[in-house]
Design goal:
Layout: H1 2-26, H2 42-52, E1 70-74, E2 98-100, H3 110-122, H4 138-141, E3 144-150, E4 153-158, E5 165-168, E6 185-191, E7 194-200, E8 220-229, E9 232-240, E10 249-257, H5 275-283, H6 294-314
Antiparallel strand pairs: 1-3, 1-10, 2-10, 3-4, 4-5, 6-7, 7-8, 8-9, 9-10
Helix pairs in contact: 1-5
Length: about 325
């Protein structure tokens, strides 16, 4: 009975995903393609954006900052894998989203790469449980977003279930480190015409992509939003977590404005931590990923280094 329910659930999810894909393809011409940086490929767009930054005087809100309000679509796929990957059934293949380092490879430590390889077949992806994706993943897990602004805050509303962000711009400090949240604590400020958002205090119960790349609850994510023209935003995010990565790395993508004034962002709603769905995954051998702390990562790293040293000594 459970197997039939499991199969039926996946058929329904697949049908929904296919319908959403068709809708996305049908709306492909609804997004501005004429831009100072027209190439959607991550590295090409990023390099062009760095050259073009500062050349555009953006429209401004009543308080004088760039007006980024509107409906936007991320124009490159990276949720499947941050690194270069072949097309999948939903045609989400593409080049690496990593723009620094220049080789496009996530600078993951050896022990963490081993854990990543274990993660993917062992655990249920957070999206399948309707968990929030965290930062930076919320900004590329779904396709369409609405940005809204007030003098004291920047709002992000996306298609992904209940994944909205309210980012204060009033100079407040981060919440205490002891408080961990699914989307972390994001605090923003303006650096000239660039919106800079720093996120800390995530519970790290999600991955950076569907290949099992992860971070700890001590990660610091710094995003930068810059308008290049009236219809293009250059978004980049730097991931810093010395527990997992050998150095900080940066990913980037283009957001293109919708040309359809009446376009609406519809939530792909589902029930967070759906108990029934969890049980189905558990029944076929998957486990629930509950994140990793910085302290645990340091223990695993030390154990890996010790084992490597012992193997090297034994081989002499």
């Amino acid at each position: 009975m459970i197997n039939r329910l499991f199969s039926s659930s996946y058929m329904a999810i697949g049908a929904l995903g296919f319908a959403l894909l068709l809708e996305s393809q049908a709306n492909a011409q609804s997004w501005v393609t004429d831009s100072v940086c027209p190439d959607d490929a991550h590295l090409a767009f990023h390099r062009c954006a760095l050259r073009a930054a500062g050349d555009f005087d953006p429209p401004r809100t009543v308080d004088g900052v760039p007006d980024m309000q509107g409906i936007w679509r991320r124009r490159a796929a990276m949720h499947e894998s941050l690194q270069a990957h072949p097309p999948t059934l939903d045609d989400s293949g593409g080049p690496s989203a990593v723009v620094d380092p220049a080789n496009g490879v996530v600078p993951i430590q050896d022990w963490a790469e081993a854990k990543r390889r274990y993660n993917r077949p062992a655990y249920v992806h957070h999206n399948a449980l309707c968990r929030l994706s965290g930062v930076p993943v919320t900004m590329y897990m779904t396709g369409t977003y609405q940005f809204m602004q007030t003098p004291g805050a920047f709002f992000v509303q996306g298609e992904e279930s209940h994944a909205f962000r309210t980012i204060p711009l009033d100079g407040r400090d981060h919440i205490p480190e002891s408080i961990k949240l699914a989307n972390g604590d994001s605090v923003g400020h303006w650096d000239g015409d660039t919106l800079v958002v720093e996120t800390r205090n995530q519970n790290a119960k999600n991955w950076l992509d569907q290949r099992g790349r992860f971070y700890t609850d001590e990660a610091v994510i710094t995003e930068r939003f810059t308008m290049l023209d009236a219809n293009t935003i250059h978004w980049q995010a730097t991931v810093e977590d010395p527990n997992v990565f050998s150095r900080p790395f940066t990913i980037a993508l283009a957001y293109r404005r919708s040309t359809v004034e009446e376009f609406e962002v519809w939530e792909e709603a589902c029930h967070e931590n759906n108990v029934f769905a969890q049980q189905q995954f558990l029944n076929v051998g998957y486990k629930i990923y509950n994140g990793i702390t910085g302290e645990e990562a340091r223990r695993l790293s030390a154990a890996w280094d010790l084992e490597e040293a012992e193997l090297e000594e034994a081989g002499r």
